[in-house]
Amino acid sequence: MEPRFNIVEMPKRILIGLDADFYGAMSPKFNGQEKLSPVWGAMYQKKNEFGFGPEVLMIGATRAAEGATDGLLNQFVGLQVDELPADLRGLNVLEIPAGTFATFEHIGGMEKLVESTQEFYNELLPDMGCTVDNGLHLEIYDERFDMSKPDSIMLIAAPIK
Fold it and tell me: Model pTM?
């Protein structure tokens, strides 16, 4: 099964979640797994607490951290909701505007995500003539994602001009 590249128009999304600063896959200081694993774990727990099923998307929305140096990023890990719950249970809200995104299906486990991310940004986007725009970069986890399966699929998405 080969990963797929596509350009799509995405709708506005509303997320409830938590965030953390980290150095991403493109930085020699990469510490994403160490810094983000606890946040993702907390959000999986919140997903269960809210009673959300597998149809509710989990999305990592990443951008440069405020005052970023050396490639420091911030990732908001959230649950996509149609409307905000009355009690956010300590979560924050992030709205992702509609826009044009280049997407790439990462196939495999989390251990290969850094490799897929580097391929997407360093090879596929330039080869396709895409110019990355300012905005949130997304990791979208839907029902096709299962960390325990070698053919698991998640979507990497970059805003483009």
Answer: 0.91
